[in-house]
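re: ur question from the group chat, yeah i did fold both. here u go
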Amino acid sequence: MTLKQDTATRRSPAAKSRASAKAVARGVTSPLLENVSKHLSGSGGRFASVAPGRLDVMGSLADYTGALVLGIPLERHACVAMQRRTDGVVSVVAGAGASKNGDVAVEIPVEKLCPPSGTVLDAASCLKLLGKKCSTDAVCCVGALVEALRAGLLPSFSGGLSVAVDTTLAKLSGAGRHGAVCAAAIAAASSVLDVTIDAVGAAHACSEVENTWFGRAVGVSGAACSLSGQAGLINEVRCDPCNLSGTVAIPDGVSLVGIHCGATRDDAWEKFDQVRTATFMGRAVVDRIVKHERLDQIRWDGYLSRISINDYVERFRDRLPTKIKGRDYLDRLGDPGDALTTVDAGFSYKVRSRTEHHIYEHARSCQFVECMNRAARSSDDRALLDAGELMYASHWSYGQRCGLGSVAADSLLNCFRVQGAEADVFGAKVTAEGCGGVVLVLMKSTEKANVAFQRAIDAYGEKSGETPTVLRGSTCGALVGGTVAV
């Protein structure tokens, strides 16, 4: 299903009422609803949205090169409540459950975010208004409103908005906290401002907050899962640039469980940016070869991940530099053409290995879908074994091809790997940007697997001194569940 980016469209009060009733019927609940709603007052309609974090299953690092990305929405989530104002102020209470006496964390006049000239303020200027002490959740809420307004997804909120936000995703790096808060804010605003929101446009607005407000050059797949993910299913996003392709069922009696290892490398985002830069260097080399040699038989649409493995090995691999200094690359080829990265002239980039990760990872994503479909049709464990091997290969590629491994994630994965398929544990891999954070495990929902799972958790805790956090359960995306009148 390809969704087009539409501008905001009006909904009647009756339609909005039906949407709210439908959301309640879906069981959209959160322990945070009471916390956030109590910070709103007045007679205007108050609506809350719940947006889940997400577990990356396959392809997440390759979402900015056109890969198929597979993700599962988590039960852990962000909750945003919102209400119109009449004094022209955007007011945000972040961490509402912990705030003292409901004190407002930040207040900004709407005319400063959206001057009378009609030009929405840029991210850097908005961040300056918010100040350095503003919480990340408050930044996400304001950023999501501004970027959705800039994209034409929301109408003017010149009268102002009261916003309250809280989350159960705190301290879980790699679980999509920023994307979830942004998704919940946009979904809540759609009800308060009485509009229908386009899912793909909203995903791009959320990723724009990550890219320009937080300086994290991520793709749209995480936000798409928080907005449109189906609970308990693997959700497909084809990042070209964003196509919500459908869902894949998790076979009966099979579980995908996330475990936060309790540690993340301090240089995670620096390493992530270096990988992205090297990848776009490789993409520019491929583009030049295709155009210079007129390789019409190569399917080339600019998306690196979709080059076939055979074409990559036969035509490009040996022509990509294994390692090259930034200044040498710039002298020979110029800027690689990615607006979100800057080539460091003094840094040596490993172009070939970083580039090929994306090509192999897209292929693994496609193969993983086939494995899940085979496993759903058959009681034979061969398909689960194959899926597990794909996960182990992806984890290896994160660490060895991209340099995004970590001692903590490797140690946790190895604790599960030694349990093996004989214990109904089939595979594991690091997720999101790597460098620690969440490890995903493929296992059966049997007593034998549960015993092995706990054994692995205990072994990791003894080795590392960390207390890992287990992430089970799933809930639907913010635009699937709708909003709740509070």
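okk and heres the other one u asked abt
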Amino acid sequence: MIDKFDLVMWTRNGAKTLPFVLKRISEVIPDECVNNRVVVDDQSNDKTVEIAESYGWNVVLNEGTGISDGANTALKHVNSEYFISFEQDLLLSSDWWEKIPSYLENPNVAAASGMRFADKPAGIRKLQQYVARKYRGEAELASWLRTRKPAAFTLGKTLDNTIYRTQVIKAIGGFPKMNVNAGVDAVLAYKIEQANYNWVVDYAVQSVHLRQGLKQELRHQYWYATQLYDIWKGIQSVTNRPPPITKNGILFRFCVSPFTGLFIALKTTESTRAFIHPLVRFYYVKGLLEASKFTTKSGTL
């Protein structure tokens, strides 16, 4: 087992969830294994800073704005051979510590994470769990599906419960520098692959993504989709190849989502997925079309 780790987090107005998040981290990760705890705050105007300091975290200001700059600001304060990143709305799984760090004992592994699923509504959480199992290729869920390896490459590779090999992350230039707050993790996953390292995801370790309900999830889907062109551009800059998911692919999935939602509901005996799945797809497409209008006007599509 690795001896010492640095813990980092980037925050912005996270006072509602931060006490639960920090308390859980202190319960799961032994204090004697922690070197530094650093919160990079992005001009919060609530009690985020005070809460972080009350739990023993050192607070520094984001040298820029957003997640990309926050992650790279945090990286400058990492002094240990390994570090762990969290986000302000992630309730860490109780078995995370005993399972995830050991993956970095393999010298070919540069990062390791567990999965995370929304706490509410239940329909969203169960839909996310179904999608994760499907993309892992569990045949009893959808044996008629072709291989999902390209589309599933970034599944679970998030920044909110991840341990890294510091030297590797610094050697590849740190976290991707992006103009949007979404997709930093996806582009980082490709950068790690291009450097011939692995990012391991343990699907059995399941943390909780603290959410406010269906409306928040739909807003999140819309917001994420508005960032897609920047994310795709970031992936292409790293890989020199098109991303595995395209605009036409997203539109097709929306068109068939009523049938897919019904199939999932019947397959998993969860009736709410029959309408939640197409509703999520609708907001995703809505965000993508909004982004398309902007990029068309700016001539970058």
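fwiw on the second one: Confidence is low (pLDDT under 50) at residues 297-301. The chain has 13 helices and eight strands. idk if thats what u expected
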